[in-house]
Amino acid sequence: MIGLVKAELQKLFTTRLWWIMLLVMLVLVGVNLGLFIGFAGVSQNGAPALPERDTVEWARMAWSAGADGNVFAMILGVVMMTAEYRYQTITGTFLTTPRRGRVIVAKLVGGLLVGLLFGLGALVFEAVVVIPTVLISGGEFSPAAWHIPQTGLGIIATFALYALFGIGLGTLVRNQVAGIVGAVVWSYVIERILVAIPALQPVGRWLPGGAAQSLLSIDVDTGLGRPELLPAWGGALVLAGYAVIFALVASATTVRRDIT
Amino acid sequence: MSAIEIHNLAKTFGALKAVDGVSFTVEAGSVTGYLGPNGAGKTTTLRCLLGLVTPDSGEALVGGRRYTTLPQPVTEVGAVLEATSFHPGRTARNHLRILCTAAGLPVQRADEALEQVGLAEAADKRVLGFSLGMRQRLALASALLGRPKVYILDEPANGLDPAGIEWLRGFLRHLAHDQGAAVLVSSHVLPEVEQTVDNVVIIAKGRLVRQGTLAELTTNGEPAVRVRAAKAAELAPALEAAGARVEPAEDGLLRVHGLDSGAVGQVALDQRVALSELTPERSDLQKIFLELTEGR
Ligand SMILES: Nc1ncnc2c1ncn2[C@@H]1O[C@H](COP(=O)(O)OP(=O)(O)OP(=O)(O)O)[C@@H](O)[C@H]1O
Ligand SMILES: [Mg+2]
Asked: What are A21-75's pLDDT values in tens digits?
């Protein structure tokens, strides 16, 4: 089994996509952080201003900026599965390991690890940007007050689980482009709307995106009111539930299908 | 127990009977050619054998077991299916190393296999730039990783140049005759495998048409030369004097056994007999195969 997981990681790391995804993710997180830095304390047209850069509130918000990168973990998950069908390497994979359930488990474990690494990458990048910014602005670095352990765990866990969602989605659609478009539309459009609009939050908080946010303890008024999310442990349970569902879907749709 | 056993295998896709009650066996130490025109059901049979396609009924066994129940399949069976099953952005060596890791084989098998198929130079090139023939060699290398005793190869000669085909023939004979492996190789082009195989199984439209040793299939119509001449009656005794057995057919036509067309031509020249036709007859196997291929 360890060999199979290693093989799945090798598949990803012997092609170029992973570092392109990592780069794009860091750019996106960087842009988010840049906006937080640029607009800190600026009040526009009477809208409530972001907190000042030296405050604990600003640091908490900035620290959660990495959460946006989870879609890249999901895309990698999609690709881990769909690339096998796109290039027909699935034939060689199943010839080597004809018990297909084992391949699926190895992919899920590999996906979790990759998601974890990407989450860590986002956190390290945040640390490098946020901590100096606060210190230069005259604030104080305080991991506990900034909720770093909680937010950090939340980001890593959501990245890892989104990679699983990607693998599940990939086994369902099998078409690479459709899978990637699906992942982006889902997490950037559908979930955003359902989680951000208060009237829709009763639905939104049960979705992976809403559940993920409850892990991040972002307590910020976006202008639409504070989001009504599940408690953190509830969010964790919901995400784990989705992971199980996607894993089952992944194996059920793959184990008996003819590979022609 | 035979190395490969197929019993009454059947598989339908929708309304199409792709494989319809096929049975045959392949023994260790021999090369079996699995021949049939395009769409005959060769690939489907091989994919059933390899656990990629689930047959509707019948059995396909390797070493007496279903492929999916083999504990270490790569060490028992080497398979080549399509020439395109590689990630274009991955190098040849990495492709093989991944298979080694997944199968629990030492990674240096990757380099050894590349060496064996003559791809050592291209080991660190991405598959993107590979020619069809190089892809075939890489596919063959992946079949060699686990040093198996059974080889299942689907049209492995596709895309190889004449030198490559010659190399492949030698390689397959070496695997079977020197190393005692059982080799099942499919093709839709008879000449590609005719000089390599010991046994032949012919399939068309999903049904088995003919099977036997190459010798059985080719000698029941011993090769003959058709000769047509106005003065056939003068030519026949001269041919017999040269050691041939002559079978008079219709008017002016002779079927000559035991001499090739060159020798027949020489005799005709010596006798100053003008020929209007001089044709080597196709062997029985070729006839059967052509009828199947053309009758579609
Ligand atoms: N997944 C599939 N769905 C529907 N029909 C299929 C499928 N796979 C194969 N077929 C059909 O089954 C028949 C047998 O196909 P198969 O690929 O086994 O033939 P083949 O002998 O390998 O031919 P070729 O020499 O062209 O490779 C063909 O008519 C093909 O169209
Ligand atoms: Mg075929």
From this structure: 999 999 999 998 888 888 877 776 666 677 887 888 888 888 888 888 889 999 9
Q: What are phi and psi of B78, to 5 degrees?
A: -110, 130
DSSP output for A46-114? TPPPBPPTTSHHHHHHHHGGGGGGHHHHHHHHHHHHHHHHHTTHHHHHHHH---HHHHHHHHHHHHHHH
Write out pLDDT tens, residues B203-219.
Answer: 988 999 888 888 777 66
Q: Which of B179, B101, B171, B169 is nearest to B141 (CA)?
A: B171
CA B253 to chain centre: 35
Instruction: Report ipTM for this prediction.
Output: 0.86
Domain-wise residue ranges, chain B: 4-218, 222-281
What is d(CA B29, CA B56) in angstroms, rounded to the nearest whole number?
30
What average pLDDT does chain B have? 89
- Using alpha carbons only, give the angle B5, B287, B266 rounded to the nearest 5 degrees: 130
CATH number for the domain running over B222-281: 3.30.70.980
Say how many domains are in chain A.
Answer: 1
Q: Do A92 and B99 touch (CB under 8 A)?
A: yes
Q: Report CA torsion sign: A162, A165, A169, A171.
A: positive
Residue A203 sits in which domain range?
Answer: 2-256
Residue of A13, A95, A257 for testing the chain B interface, max B β-carbons within 10 Å: A95
Question: What CATH architecture is B4-218?
Answer: 3-Layer(aba) Sandwich (3.40)
Mean local confidence (pLDDT), B113-125: 94
Kindly report the number of other CB atoms within 10 A of residue B247's CB atom: 12
Residue ranges around ligand 1 (CB below 6 Å): A 260; B 13, 16, 18, 36, 38-44, 188
Identical topology for domains B4-218 and B222-281: no
- Cβ atoms of B186 and B35 closer than 8 Å: yes
CA A58 / ligand 1 centre spacing (Å): 63
Q: Decide if B90 and A88 are in contact by the 8 Å CB cutoff.
A: no
Which of B99, B105, B128, B144 best tests the A interface by mutation, with the highest count of A CBs <10 A? B99
Per-residue confidence (pLDDT) for residue B295, from 0 to 100: 58
